[in-house]
Amino acid sequence: MRSIWKGSIAFGLVNVPVKVYTATEDHDIKFHQVHAADGGRIRYERLCTVDGQPVQYSDIDRAYESPDGDRVILTDEDFAKLPAAEKHEIPVLQFVPSEQIDPILFDKSYYLEPDSTTPKAYVLLAKTLDRVDRVALVHFTLRQKTRLAALRVRDGVMVLQTLLWPDEVRSVAFDKLEGVAEPKTQELKMAETLVDTLSDDFDPSLYVDEYQIELKKLLDEAIASGSSKVTRAPEAAAPAMDAEVVDLVAALQRSLEASGRKTGSAPAAKAAPAKKKPAKKAAKKAPAKQTRKGA
Q1: Distance of CA 179 to the CA centre of its chain
Q2: Residue 136 to residue 290: CA distance in whole angstroms
Q3: Alpha-carbon distance 115 to 5, whole Å?
Q4: Strand pairing partners for 111?
């Protein structure tokens, strides 16, 4: 795992250095959108509706439109002026009983790893949370967004769970539930009996994602059969010679040509020993012997 945040928990006057990791991951099989006619990948561009040109992400600001249609454009400088919790601190606000937090408020979960050579303060806070059977309410700022979060312990490791703000949970009132008669005593007893027959301790390993298993099986079988729905991956091309190596080979070739040799005659050059040159000089001295004879 790779940490996504680094800072410390402010527990009174005690600072607990931590690293934050995403606690969950999505195992769903991902698909690309393709053109049904030829299988070409569908690409999306950020286009400006005024000039029709692509826009780089660095050139994008954010705009708000009021219910009346008024628009306000804000820059990063504007957002930097807004109040937010300390970006590298997780302040503990209070400790509350865990059963008082409605599960509907829980959002995302993160693991906290001690970021200290001596994680004594980390262990102290974790043990304390276990002993008091409470969760710590904290502020957590991630990607310029401050959230309320619950800090608890799971198997000795502290877990941070961001919470929705109360006004983010929709209130609901269904008309069909109004004026419905209360269940009869006999009906409630029979329902409770059925609950008892299906009651057991929770074991998450008993439940699997059948849809993803069957989907993976479908894809594997299609690839193995080589059906018309499968487009084979192109064979990897032989690695091209590095440009620097090509230039070096060309330079060596020119060097050989400048020395009067050809690359193909290199083995022959090895077969001709360099010591034969003195023999040629000895042949040139033959006329000197003839002069002596004539004398």
Answers
A1: 51
A2: 118
A3: 11
A4: 21, 159
Determine the pLDDT at residue 39. Answer: 86
Parallel, antiparallel or unpaired: strands 157-163 and 145-154: antiparallel
pLDDT at 88: 86
Whether the CB-CB separation of 152 and 138 falls below 8 Å is answered with no
pLDDT at residue 240, rounded to an integer? 64
Say how many CA atoms lie within 13 Å of 162 toward its Cβ. 16
> Using only C-alpha atoms, what is the Rg of the chain?
39
Give the pLDDT score at 273.
Answer: 53
What is the three-state SS of the chain? CCCCEEEEEEECCEEEEEEEEECCCCCCCCCCCECCCCCCECCCCCECCCCCCECCHHHCCEEEECCCCCEEEECHHHHHCCCCCCCCEEEEEEEEEHHHCCHHHEEEEEEEEECCCCCHHHHHHHHHHHHHCEEEEEEEEECCEEEEEEEEEECCEEEEEEECCHHHCCCCCCHHHCCCCCCCHHHHHHHHHHHHHCCCCCCHHHCCCHHHHHHHHHHHHHHHHCCCCCCCCCCCCCCCCCHHHHHHHHHHHHHHHHCCCCHHHHHHHHHCCHHHHHHHHHHHCHHHHHHHHHC
Rounded distance between C-alpha atoms, residue 139 and residue 80, angstroms:
18
Residue type, 116: S
142, β-bridge pairs: 145
pLDDT of amino acid 12: 85
Alpha-carbon dihedral sign for residues 67, 70, 73, 77 = negative
The two three-digit tokens of residue 234, written as one number? 């192109």
Q: Is the pTM of this model over 0.85?
A: no
Angle, alpha carbons 26-31-32 (nearest 5°): 130
Residue 120 CA, chain-centre distance (Å), reads 31
More confident residue, 292 or 251: 251
Paired tokens of 258 = 């400048």
> In this predicted model, what pLDDT tens digit does every residue of 135-175 receive, in sequence order?
999 999 888 788 999 999 999 999 999 999 999 999 998 99
